[in-house]
Amino acid sequence: MRVEDAVVADEVRNLAASTRQSTERIQGSISKLQSVAKEAVKQMQLSNDAAKQGVENAKINGETFEAVSGAVGTIVDMNVHISSATEEQTAVANDINQNIHTVVSSVSEVVEGAEQTSVASQQLAELAQQLKHQVEQFKI
Fold this sequence. Notes:
Blueprint: H1 3-137
C-alpha cells in the first residue's frame, strides 16, 4: 500500500468516526427533542383539559347564578304581594277597630237608654201604685 493510500484510508477512518459521533449526537438531540415534544404535547393536553373544565365550571356557575337570580326575583315578587296584603289587612283591621268603637258607643247609648227606661218604668210603676191606691179610696 502506498503512503497516499494509507493517508486516505486514515482520513476515511477518521471521517467515518467523526460521522458516527455526529450521528450519535444528532440521534441524542432528536431523542431529547422528541422527549421534550412529547412532554409539551402532554402539558398542552392537560392545559386543554383544564380549559375545558374551566368552561364547564363557568357554564355551571352561570346556570347557578341564573337560578339564584330567578329565585331572588320570585322572593321580591312575594315580598311585594306580602306587603300589599299586609297593607290591606291593616286597612281592614282599622275599619274593624272603627266599627268596634261605633258598636261600643252604640251599646253605651243603648245601656243609657235602658237605664232611663228602667227609671221611667219604676216611676210609672210607682205612679200606677199611687193611682191604684187613690182609685181604691173612691170605691163605694
